[in-house]
Specification:
The chain has 306 residues and is α/β, with parallel strands linked by helices. The chain has helices at residues 14-23, 53-66, 75-83, 98-110, 115-125, 146-155, 163-172, 174-185, 221-224, 280-283; strands at residues 3-7, 27-29, 32-34, 38-42, 69-71, 131-133, 137-140, 187-190, 207-210, 254-257, 267-270, 273-275, 286-291, 302-305.
């Protein structure tokens, strides 16, 4: 095996995914896309938003099941799993409220007359890991922290995430559930009630994601926020209220992730950290990184179609 091709959030754009795989040298053989020497890795978020959700899910699943790809859960897959599981009180773990319905509705509509197939896909999703630690590289959907992932490794079961385990984790082990949500959604900063932070649009921002690889000391809100939804002020960030975390250092193994919908395209944010979510539903672009055992990431290895 000569290396890995790590592919960003697809969100139901199967045609673009096929173009990207073709660009990377993969061909459809015996019902699955394959490369003679390389393995693909999907960073999660295959479903929702796009026009070819079922085709995308089938393609990704075929590649994983045939051994030509690896995949992890994104927040969209995990939310879909919880959307169909009730807790011990009979309430759906991902509540059927407007925001959650809006996110998943397009996928549910696609499988409206294919309920058995959809339930089978949900069962398959529960076989996927939350992260991959492959030694020289690591893959998560939105976040990595060695200390927290070490705790999660000890707690998570081998094999499929059973419904009973998911109920117990969310009801009896909130500390583990918090780590899972960080992996899926990033390191969130929640502003205290007496601190008002307004973005460039003049709107108050109470919750936003931080660069988990950056030490917050002597940094501003603008320097620490990661995403493209708004611009925060250039005021110094009060470290006294910073979340407890250890910044991911440049000498640690390479991490690939997605999730953040970067409208400017995928970005190498540190020599060992790369965000591959090029916000396909907005930009029409899909990105992969061709990793061939190099120790430092290079923009020359980013492959973009769209």
């Amino acid at each position: 095996m000569d290396g890995y091709d790590i592919i960003g959030d697809i969100h139901g754009y199967a045609t673009l995914l096929k173009r990207l795989l073709t660009e990377l040298g993969y061909k459809r053989v015996d019902g699955s896309w394959r490369h003679p020497e390389r393995t693909a890795i999907f960073v999660g978020d295959f479903i929702n938003r796009g026009p070819e959700i079922r085709e995308t899910l089938l393609l990704v699943r075929e590649m994983v099941d045939s051994g030509s790809a690896l995949a992890i859960l994104g927040n969209h897959e995990y939310s879909s799993i919880l959307y169909h599981i009730k807790d011990d009180n009979g309430t759906f773990m991902s509540r059927h409220i407007a925001g959650n319905r809006t996110q998943i509705q397009k996928t549910l509509t696609v499988f409206k007359n294919l309920e058995e197939e959809w339930l089978d896909h949900l069962k398959w999703m529960r076989t996927l890991p939350f992260f991959l630690d492959l030694g020289a590289i690591r893959v998560a959907h939105a976040y990595w922290n060695d200390r927290e992932i070490a705790k999660l490794k000890e707690y998570l079961p081998k094999g499929r995430l059973k419904k009973k385990f998911l109920r117990e984790m969310h009801e009896k082990r909130p500390d583990m559930a918090v780590i899972v949500y960080k992996l899926l959604k990033g390191l969130e900063f929640k502003s205290p009630k007496d601190l008002i932070i307004k973005c460039s649009k003049g709107l108050s921002r109470k919750v936003f994601t931080l660069k988990w690889w950056t030490n917050p000391r002597n940094k501003t809100f603008r320097q620490l926020y990661f995403g493209n939804k708004f611009i925060l002020p250039d005021y110094h960030f009060p470290v006294e209220i910073a979340p407890d975390f250890e910044p991911y250092l440049p000498d640690q193994p390479i991490v690939f992730f997605g999730h953040y919908c970067l409208s400017e395209g995928a970005e190498i944010v540190q020599e060992n950290i790369c965000c591959l979510d090029s916000c396909v539903d907005t930009t029409g672009k899909l990105t992969a990184y061709r990793w061939s055992c190099e120790k430092h990431l290079s923009p020359d290895n980013l492959v973009v179609v769209g």
